[in-house]
Amino acid sequence: MLKYLINQSRVLLAGASLVTVFHGTCSVLLIAQISSALTATESERGTLALVFIATAVAVMLSYVSAAILFERLGQRAHAELRSFVARKVLAADYRNLETVGAARIQSALAEHCTHVAEFFVSFPIILMNAVIVAGCLLYMAWLSWQVFLLAILVVGLGCVGYHLAHLRAIRHLNIASEEQDKLFSYFRSLTDGAKELRLNNRKRKAFYEDVLSGSIETVRRERTFGMSVFVASGGWAQFLLYVFIGMVLFALVSDGPDRALVMTGYALVFVYMVGPLEALLLNIPRANLAKVSAERIEEITRAMTTQEIETDNSSLPGLQSLALRGVLHRYYHEQSDELFTLGPIDLDFRPGEITFLVGGNGSGKTTLAKLLVGLYPPEEGQIIFNGKAVDETNRDCYRQLFSTVFSDFHLFDRLLETDRVDLDNEGNRLLAKLHLQNKVKVQDGAFTTLALSQGQRKRLALVVAYLENRPFFIFDEWAADQDPVFKEVFYRELLPELRAMGKAVLVISHDDRYFHLADRLIRMESGCLTFNACPSLKDALHATPAPPLVLNGVT
Ligand SMILES: Nc1ncnc2c1ncn2[C@@H]1O[C@H](COP(=O)(O)OP(=O)(O)OP(=O)(O)O)[C@@H](O)[C@H]1O
């Protein structure tokens, strides 16, 4: 991931790095000039002053240019990463997305992308200070070659120590990253479960103390440990530096004619070098954190795959026939080691036909709807659409056949599903039909508000589905949250209207008083079809009566 980003901006990165190297070199030259000026004669000072001013200006200009270039790189990397993850999420198979989970995706989009982008803040600091430290060492080598050899030894020892620490620290940073993914799901529970947490004080306390705090603490502990190991390795490097300084000052510099110049030079360089060295040791861990986050993004996005070919929407076919043949889907529940199997299912759908799908909770109605609309590719069997099997090459195109309102529907404030010119007028006409005209309007292709009751929001979702106007409509317990008057409108007006328009309609419903309005009734039990016929054959519907509900021994 980091390599990809670096590759994407290699020209800008190379330019910024060159400017940084130039800045580091000028900074070292500045120190060398200060050192020379301290022991310079009166006649040399004039020229030295001019060179000093020119170098100082170069240092300032190169610093500003490098900082701006790297800021641009960082922001660009951040934007690119966010787009990359968002595109991956949009293209991923729905099932893969369910497996990865919303929390990990949020974590990737929020924290991990930020950490990776910070690499472009750390990188110039590392590069700039590495150049300064290298320059200082070279300056020392020029003053005395023995010192240079010693410096090489110190750098070697520092590298070995750092590498060992690095391996340990990365392990802890990885654990922290994994825990952070869980933490994001707990953060969601803070807002999504706000009502439940307020209504049960024991639950609220337990959630905070046992779940949330534990997770926050794990991230803190692991990250602190990981970063501390890096800091400790920084301390080791600093210690080596002082050993190096001590050996140079007290053992290596002999009493010669240049002793004063050499000692002044060293004193200055040492003092100057400590700052860059510290910056270096502080920023290398940050770059490592970026690496860990980049690996995490890679892992998350790798799980979001697809083999499907995206449709261009130019020639969406109409519906002539649709058949499910031996279609089967399984859910595996890891915690309980249980498998839910839906199917094998054989079903036919025709235009202008209203099908009701009924059955107990958890019998597989929604799963069947997801299979039918192509959100889940069948594990076995086939969907035959207009005589052609649906596969990776045409599944995206096939999905464009459906307008749906699932029970966990999402409303976008903008009406993005269609580019029809009469969108506002048609939207407002439908809103009036569903008695929402005083609550919300469609204005410039967007709803004026979404702050409505659940039942009203479902009516908005119905408006959206109507505006999409696809050949096949699916409603998953749409009427469950509606007043009797809207149930009437839905079952007795809207559904017949859709039938008259030649739409195929699948209605998942528990409203048995409207079952007779369907052209066909399907019943599901434990993932299997147990009834598939005209609704007048009512007896078959009640083949398996539901067991009585028992609460604390009271029926
Ligand atoms: N994303 C999922 N991952 C794993 N198992 C799932 C998933 N969604 C549903 N299931 C399981 O599949 C079974 C059928 O669920 P489904 O939602 O299709 O039932 P349903 O008939 O629509 O129920 P309800 O009437 O309560 O909405 C359930 O046992 C459920 O535990």
Automatic annotation (TrEMBL):
Domain ABC transporter: 322-551
UniProt cross-references to SMART domains, sorted A to Z: AAA (SM00382)
Gene Ontology molecular-function annotations: ABC-type transporter activity; ATP binding; ATP hydrolysis activity; ATPase-coupled lipid transmembrane transporter activity; peptide transmembrane transporter activity
Gene3D superfamilies: ABC transporter type 1, transmembrane domain (1.20.1560.10), P-loop containing nucleotide triphosphate hydrolases (3.40.50.300)
Gene Ontology biological process terms from the UniProt entry: peptide transport
Main location: membrane
UniProt membrane topology term: Multi-pass membrane protein
Pfam families assigned: ABC_membrane (PF00664), ABC_tran (PF00005)
Residues annotated as transmembrane: 12-34, 46-70, 119-141, 147-165, 229-254, 260-282
InterPro entries in the record: AAA+_ATPase, ABC1_TM_dom, ABC1_TM_sf, ABC_transporter-like_ATP-bd, ABC_transporter-like_CS, Cyc_pep_transpt_SyrD/YojI, P-loop_NTPase, Type_1_exporter
Keywords: ATP-binding, Cell membrane, Membrane, Nucleotide-binding, Transmembrane, Transmembrane helix
Domain ABC transmembrane type-1: 29-289
Cellular localization per UniProt: Cell membrane
One cellular component (GO) term of this entry: plasma membrane
PANTHER family tied to this protein: ATP-BINDING CASSETTE SUB-FAMILY B, ATP-BINDING CASSETTE SUB-FAMILY B MEMBER 6
Name the record gives this protein: Cyclic peptide transporter
Taxonomy of the source species: Bacteria, Pseudomonadati, Pseudomonadota, Betaproteobacteria, Nitrosomonadales
